[in-house]
Write a structure and sequence with these properties.
Layout lengths: L24 H10 L6 H7 L2 H13 L6 H17 L6 H26 L7 H18 L4 H26 L3 H20 L4 E3 L5 H7 L1 E2 L2 H28 L7 H25 L2 E2 H19 L1 H11 L1 H6 L4 H27 L1 E3 L7 H11 L12 H20 L3 H28 L4
Antiparallel strand pairs: 1-4, 2-3
Helix pairs in contact: 2-3, 4-17, 5-11, 5-12, 5-15, 5-16, 5-17, 6-7, 6-8, 6-15, 7-8, 7-15, 9-15, 10-11, 12-13, 13-15, 16-17, 16-18
């Protein structure tokens, strides 16, 4: 047949003719409709306003995309319960002390978050934190090394330990569980060897490491300026991201939504600043922790390296086929975990102003893993945030603080903390199952 044949002909046939030989409008418009791009559902949600957002929220709950909702609800419940049982729990002094006490554990938990994003586990961070605290104390206090140099050596030592773990896991093929379990024993033994027969090295209160934990900015302006800077950075980053996505012609948050989110963040930030100022002021340790969280959150969410971590954790074979160096990502992540364990261990040593044979021991390992998981990082990999460390540490610290005020024994505290950890894992498992059923995992 020729290419100008009528209806029913080959795919190359011309348009169907209507009355008077003109193209039939229904038939002629059909290709135009087929060529329209698919509409992103997020655009429809935003066009519907409040009703659209509520519908989207219900859809996410049904499909298991809970985000930080469970841990936020947990914090509200914990604070409500302990606050009703004893008014001292919600006092400015207790909440300020709590903000300092969670820093060491939270920093180590940040490293665990990176490892969990790969779907792996690191059982050595407790002993690594103790080893690095001992290295700093011995080099600086016993051997007289410059304090900042000793601090750098200790942090580099933690990164080196993590790199060793990553090498055996990524290159040799030893399971991460086994490598880090062996490391937990080996580095604890090395810590005892470094400390020597004395077993304890006291860190003078006038040293900078001790001051990193104990320093508090008493001026009310410090807390309020920090809150204002944080809110400003959030607003600027949100607007720049929206502008970048608009130029790329992909869905972006409208200005009204960005402003609403900024208002919520501002309310939380300035409320925290107000509470801190009701006691003594802004703790330096908390400020350093927040800065580290912002930097590492940027690394995870805004850099190619961060996207590769999520890719490897979400689908290792797909990441490999996409040209990602899986061994490099694995080794670097364990290096970060070792470095954060060292930083957290030094803050913990500054808190008690000593490094001893018990450093990094006790329930520290369980607390940092629990903090990462309770905060919302999935044990199955590919989903989580460094802010999980802050939220999880806040939950665990709140439970411990509340039960200490109530005079509850350590035995009961361990059981309750274990129950909360189990509940977090159950929520994670059910969420993942719901997402699979909804085709989103």
């Amino acid at each position: 047949m020729s290419r100008d044949q009528g209806p029913g002909g080959a795919p190359g046939s011309g348009p169907a003719r209507g009355v008077g030989g003109r193209p039939d409008e229904a038939t002629a418009q059909e290709p135009a409709r087929d060529s329209l791009p698919a509409v992103d559902t997020r655009l429809l949600v935003r066009e519907e306003g409040v009703r659209g957002y509520l519908g989207e929220f219900r859809r996410k709950l049904r499909s298991g995309e809970l985000g930080s909702l469970p841990v936020v609800v947990a914090v509200i419940i914990i604070w409500t319960v302990f606050g009703s049982l004893n008014s001292a729990f919600l006092s400015a002094q207790n909440l300020s002390d709590l903000s300092q006490q969670i820093v060491g554990t939270g920093m180590i938990a940040v490293g665990i978050v990176f490892v969990l994003l790969l779907g792996e586990i690191d059982l050595s961070v407790g002993s690594v934190s103790g080893l690095c605290a001992a290295l700093f104390a011995v080099f600086n206090v016993i051997n007289g090394m410059n304090e900042w140099l000793a601090l750098l050596v200790a942090v580099a030592g933690g990164a080196a330990v993590g790199l060793i773990h990553g090498f055996f896991f990524a290159k040799v093929g030893v399971p991460a569980f086994v490598v880090t379990l062996a490391g937990n024993l080996a580095w604890n033994g090395l810590m005892l060897q470094v400390l020597g027969t004395s077993g304890t090295v006291n860190i003078p209160s006038e040293t900078n490491v001790a001051k990193l934990y104990s320093t508090i900015f008493h001026s009310p302006a410090a807390a309020y300026v920090t809150a204002a800077v944080g809110v400003g950075l959030f607003l600027a980053a949100s607007l720049l991201d929206a502008r970048r996505r608009q130029k790329a012609r992909v869905p972006f948050r409208p200005v009204a939504e960005i402003v609403l989110r900024t208002v919520v963040i501002a309310a939380i930030a300035f409320a925290a600043a107000y509470i801190l100022n009701q006691y003594q002021g802004l703790p330096l340790a908390l400020l350093i922790f927040l800065i580290l969280l912002v930097v590492l959150d940027f690394v995870l969410r805004r850099t190619t390296y961060g996207r590769r971590i999520f890719a490897v954790g979400g689908n290792i074979e797909g990441a490999r086929r996409a040209g990602i160096s899986v061994p490099f990502v694995r080794m670097s992540v364990f290096t970060i975990a070792g470095m954060m364990a060292a930083i957290g261990g030094i803050f913990l040593a500054g808190q008690i102003q000593s490094a001893s044979q018990t450093s990094g021991g006790g329930n520290l390992l369980m607390n940092v893993i629990a903090a990462a998981v309770i905060g919302g990082t999935s044990l199955f990999g590919g989903r989580g945030s460094v802010w999980s460390a802050l939220l999880g540490a806040l939950v665990i610290g709140s439970i411990q603080s509340g039960m200490n005020i109530m005079g509850v024994s350590n035995a009961v505290q361990f059981m309750i903390t274990g129950s909360v950890l189990l509940a977090a894992v159950v929520v994670d498992s059910l969420s993942r199952r719901s997402q699979k059923a909804a085709g989103r995992a």
